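Hi L.,

As promised, UPF0125 protein RAMLITH_01835:
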Amino acid sequence: MRVTVLYSPAAREVLEWEVGVEPGATVAQAIERSGMALARPGLDWHRASVGVWGRKSGLDTVLREGDRVEIYRPLQVDPKLARRERFARQGARAAGLFAKTQVRGPRR
């Protein structure tokens, strides 16, 4: 059966391997078979988060025909912290519920 293994080392850069595995193969077996370890020797995929079709899963997850295995890189910035910093930069009047809205007079 055929599955695809993907890894994105940086924004707008995606490495993709199409792999043939036996029925009942796991995520770990697909990653090993892909040869990704040779292409990215510095990546410790045993400790990285992985998923199938955008849903986080474990290395022991059994794959089906056509599955897409994704290896996730760690976040550079905590999303909550980034939102707080963006809000602080923009100010209370320019963001979210407090954004300025245009007030119009009555229609004539």
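The chain is about 20% helix and 25% strand.

Thanks again for sending the construct details.

K.
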